[in-house]
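Section 5.1 Outputs to date
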Amino acid sequence: MTTHPLEPVTFGELPLRIEDVLALANRQVPTQLQGDPAFRQRIAKGAQFLDSLLDKEGVIYGVTTGYGDSCVVAVPLQHVEALPRHLYTFHGCGLGQLLDPQATRAVLAARLQSLCHGVSGVRVELLERLQAFLDLDILPLIPEEGSVGASGDLTPLSYVAATLSGEREVLFRGERRQSCDVHRELGWEPLVLRPKEALALMNGTAVMTGLACLAFARADYLLQLATRITALNVVALQGNPEHFDERLFAAKPHPGQMQVAAWLRKDLAIDAPTAPLHRLQDRYSLRCAPHVLGVLADSLGWLRSFIETELNSANDNPIIDAEEERVLHGGHFYGGHIAFAMDSLKTLVANVADLLDRQLALLVDVRYNHGLPSNLSGSSAERAMLNHGFKAVQIGASAWTAEALKNTMPASVFSRSTECHNQDKVSMGTIAARDAIRVLELTEQVAAATLLAANQGVWLRGQASDARPLPPALAAMHETLAKDFPPVIEDRALEAELRLCLKRIAEQHWRLHA
């Protein structure tokens, strides 16, 4: 995390990193708005310039015209003040599940950071109220479905605009409340959105970008966890550690692939004396683990670039250039970079699920696990016929993997012409981001299953009379896991332990390689 737990994240002219958004989403840091007079004046100047254009009866999209294909419809000046409320009102048609609190905070952070560029024509008061929503944890209840990712996340972000205006519902202090009641309790007047402010709030990529920040952070940790699980499985399956030799990877020097191999060497203490090898070459799910995981490792750099550039951009329309007194009409609401990043990430992550699922399949099968008991059962010989160990867990992991792989269909190629063919090419970036979150959920389930199975396999190896001590990193991990997940000797329902393991993954509980 880039900020100290006691240092606030400042919204303003300086860029944010994904780690800042993650810290805000997890309520680990407070927030503040840049407060120097020059910054405040730059923000105010955009709103003042718009007011001057209204005085001159200038034509401004979404301010003195209707929205979308209705831009040809002039709005008389006496009705301009009513237009923002109409925009967030008719977009109040979202469906599906509500974004969870973590995702909602990320959305608010992404929208606030974009508006801080000072080219959206909004008042300082709007930024202050958005920052106060974050600081006091007032969370609009946002349905996750209904955005095609251009013109931005219009429908979900309408719930932000409406709640700032004292309408619709928020989550506050653990309760679902009317926004107007929360405003009254805090002694606030709901905002009456000025011309362009509803459009500035809604006509941007904050939902897909907030979700992308969370997805990136989860994938980064999953990469490290999958590497650790692989190392445990090399021990459990008596694999050949020479597959990760540094000289071998110097011959194909993808940096991320080399990093994963280096993590495996460290976990396995590969320079220490090893047991005699049982075979020259392990199956691909062990031998090629750096090659599979390395693709994700090598992609994190450009994924970060795409996400953080979008996060730190003005992505609404039109852009208000108060310095040059120009209104620039364009398409910065288009979420193509996030769409491609999330479509790519979900494919990368699903491949991790597939890798770990194959490792688990080897662990439970006596034909391939090199002497471990069937289904990793720890029962005595007298009760072996009754016990089935990890049999059902492996079936579950196959189901979760299949669903993850099925969800890799790219959303970004399913553009639909909509809104009277004004929005005739759209990004589907929000659907791609939601898909990526779902694939991560499924892959984390596979990781939890494979981690518990790998730990069981390591424990079973340790029961042998000729058992060798575990390398230090794996010994520490095995000891930590044992506190929550005792060996499976007699069959027991493992759902609660799998859910606890998922909770530990979500908390990034185990210190791994970073």
